[in-house]
Design brief:
The protein is of the alpha/beta class. It is built from six helices and 13 strands. The longest helix has 12 residues. The radius of gyration is 15 Å and the shape is globular.
Length: about 200
């Protein structure tokens, strides 16, 4: 199995690659469209600003490539948000695989933003990627969050409920960092790699 990890300019690349290698995979970190198109699985990690990540994807002419992929694709943290239509973060146009708007988390009631640390999820679908994971804890670091909708497989709460795991066709995403989430994160990544397309 070939696994392409897309260069979106994020700072979490080393930990993502290490997490995949611990599962016995041999990922390739790349901005080459042909390598991404031919991979069996594609991961889109991201840390930082949406506008900067989209600029990086445009710089490498990867936007249309990512939008046209047929194999399973998994966005991590900002990479998940990039699957949506738009965001409060600079009003950036995103990849548009999920027709919804990513919103900034509220500072109300003394809640800390960014939402940083461990939080549990609640599955709202029995889809095999996250079936049985309700109540498991994962590591979050983010200031923006995706709404819930038909695409939501699991939710979490920080002031309000929002999407923690999403799916739209062959596109999947996690708002948290599975590569920093110990055994539950490793289990989720393994399930993604083992998905029957």
């Amino acid at each position: 199995m070939t696994i392409a990890v897309v260069d979106s300019g994020g700072a979490n690349i080393a930990s993502v690659l290490h997490a995949l290698r611990r599962l016995g995979a041999e990922p390739v970190f790349t901005s080459d469209a042909r390598a991404i198109q031919s991979a069996d699985r594609v991961l889109l990690p991201g840390v930082g600003a949406a506008a900067r990540a989209m600029a990086k994807l445009r710089q490498h002419d990867l936007v249309s490539t990512l939008r046209a992929l047929q194999q399973p694709v998994f966005g991590i943290c900002l990479g998940m948000q990039l699957l949506f239509q738009s965001t409060d973060e600079g009003e950036s146009e995103l990849l548009g695989m999920i027709p919804a708007h990513v919103e900034r988390l509220d500072h109300k009631d003394g809640l800390r933003v960014p939402h940083m640390g461990w939080n549990s999820i609640r599955t709202v679908s029995n889809y095999k990627l996250c079936d049985g994971m309700s109540g498991m804890w994962f590591y979050f670091v983010h200031s923006y969050a995706a709404p819930t909708g038909d695409w939501t497989l699991a939710t979490t709460e920080h002031g309000r409920s929002f999407s923690a795991i999403v799916r739209s066709g062959n596109y999947f995403g996690a708002q948290f960092h599975p590569e920093r989430s110990a055994a539950p994160g490793a289990a989720l990544l393994k399930r993604f790699l083992d998905l029957d397309p």
